[in-house]
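Aim 2, interim progress: modelling of the phenylalanine-bound target.
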Amino acid sequence: MLEEVRQLASVVVAEITAAQDDKALEALRVHHLGRKSRLRQIARQIGHLPAAQRPALGEATGRAQQAIQQALDDKALALRQMAESASALDVTLPGRRPLLGCAHLLSQLTDELISIFQGMGFDVADGPEAEDEYHNFDALNTPADHPARDLHDTFYLEGGGLMRTHTSTVQIRVMEQTPPPVRIISLGRCYRKETVDATHHFAFHQIEGLYVDRGVSFADLKGTIEAMGRQLMGAETQVRFRPHFFPFTEPSVEYDFTCICKRQRANCSICKGTGWIEIAGAGMVDPAVFTAVGYDPDEYTGFAFGMGLERIAMIRHGIDDVRRFLENDLRFIRQF
Ligand code: PHE
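Predicted structure of the complex, ligand included:
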């Protein structure tokens, strides 16, 4: 009988746990704890047993009864909670639409450029925004007294650092770490001392490209810029190079794309009817830059280019104010 009582409890508790509703639970209570239950029958027989067996069976019966009662209480509570949460759900209420985010226009353009250049075998490199003078200027063939520094005035940090004025810093950092050949792009934020207006901002974004190997030529630069232009602005896009000056490239150019108005609109607000839009700067890496990073300028040649992302986005989407990009106004950001 002792063994029977012990097994009874676990069988009954399992039945209770599986009960579907209050009615089933009440039936189980009557059946297992009521006057006619097996447990009560056993309890009534304890008095007739030899004295030595009574305490053990008495204790087992008491314990089984307790376990069953506990299981009944627990299940009753669980059923009540289920009923309450079901009645709190009103399926006739209108749905609540989750807030869907979107990538910022500049992030989208960043991803697009990465995919364009990965298709041409470029890796993506990264560099710090808080820089030192050496990587922003000196190593880029722009010594302290060079007039080109005037155009790149920026925020200076305590201890001699500065906020980078262009992504060309990453050219230096990559070449310092990597023997040639290198083929990288780098995208990120740059800073300059600008008075903020519709076309100027103290913080903006650039993409830098650098390709160094034996025998890299100006034709490679043109082909690469053209391939980028066509993917960014449409397959019919043409590229024009104009002579320019940068301390860290020689020869240097500025390049233009044909306008998205396709020369059709004499009063086009983007190209002012010229048919061309100024895009960015590029050139063949100056031998002095190779010397600064320990590359042999007699063995290697390379090209580099830098381009502002805001300008591209403004042309493509007809955005007329560069301040929009950093204002975090959702009405602007959500449009793209
Ligand atoms: N760093 C230059 C700028 O910001 C752009 C550039 C990059 C020009 C690479 C030539 C080569 O004005």
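Residues 10 and 247 are 86 Å apart (CA to CA). Residues 166, 168, 246, 249, 281-283, 304-306 surround phenylalanine (CB under 6 Å).
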